[in-house]
Amino acid sequence: MKISDAAAASGCHLETIRYYERVGLMPPPARTASGYRAYRPAEVERLRFISRGRELGFSLEEIRSLLRLDDDSKMSCGDVDVIARTHLADIRQRIDELHRMATELERVIAECAGGERGHCTILNALREMGAASECTNARCRA
Amino acid sequence: MKISDAAAASGCHLETIRYYERVGLMPPPARTASGYRAYRPAEVERLRFISRGRELGFSLEEIRSLLRLDDDSKMSCGDVDVIARTHLADIRQRIDELHRMATELERVIAECAGGERGHCTILNALREMGAASECTNARCRA
DNA sequence: CCTTGACTCTGTAGCTACTACGGACTTTAC
DNA sequence: GTAAAGTCCGTAGTAGCTACAGAGTCAAGG
User: Could you tell me the domains of chain A?
Assistant: First the structure.
């Protein structure tokens, strides 16, 4: 199977596959007489594994660990579980952060809609939001 | 005010301030006789503006636009509103995506907890999840 | 006055996960 | 036979910083 077929079958972009090879996530594949990469089913499976991991938001390093655990015959399910739960916690944190942003944005946008013309409340929010303390140090005046 | 004071007052990392200058988000500041950057209050305000924009998840390009609109005396509140609403929509989309990831992860993690020993359902999920169609093309067998 | 330590300067390289190019070669289709 | 499509490799670009190295500057203590 050539690289473009492997790309189609795995859901990975063609250039991404070469990238995964370069960073050691994929082993160097067999080559045809003319030097074209030739992928076997197991390698396409591995690409799909990576692709699904990415869909779940795992980093390449996490996927690297998961692949190692997958290759390992004496299955250490506990380690996999730790990676997955840590990652889930990370995702939840990112969701919380985005929620905070969205809430704050909704607030300033809503205010703007009802605001008087002449001063934009969105820009005001950016100008004044959670204003940190001024530097009162004498040097600051220099 | 020297750069470290400006950093403390604005919430931007010292090296980040230099970076903003390099990419043209901050104008080149005045310099002392010895070449140290000297920030005036208005510039620290601008840094805070950027910092708050980042807290709300705006990209540097979006912030660049907002700064332009802020500098503009004939306030175009409508443009600001468009940027903010577009950004909010983008954040909501990212939240949805992360939610999908979290839900799927929760599912496979929960299955794993109740699964039989000897085969990890998390790894199985990555191996088989939403399996794409095989390449049935004859060339794939080569 | 001199030293010591903290600060700042510039320029460059690193990070994640790709994506896109250029120029050469090979394969495929007509 | 020729043209189009595919593949090769190496390099550079993307966002938004962060982290160095090596040199110069400043303030305080002895």
Answer: 3-56 (1.10.1660.10), 90-141 (no CATH)
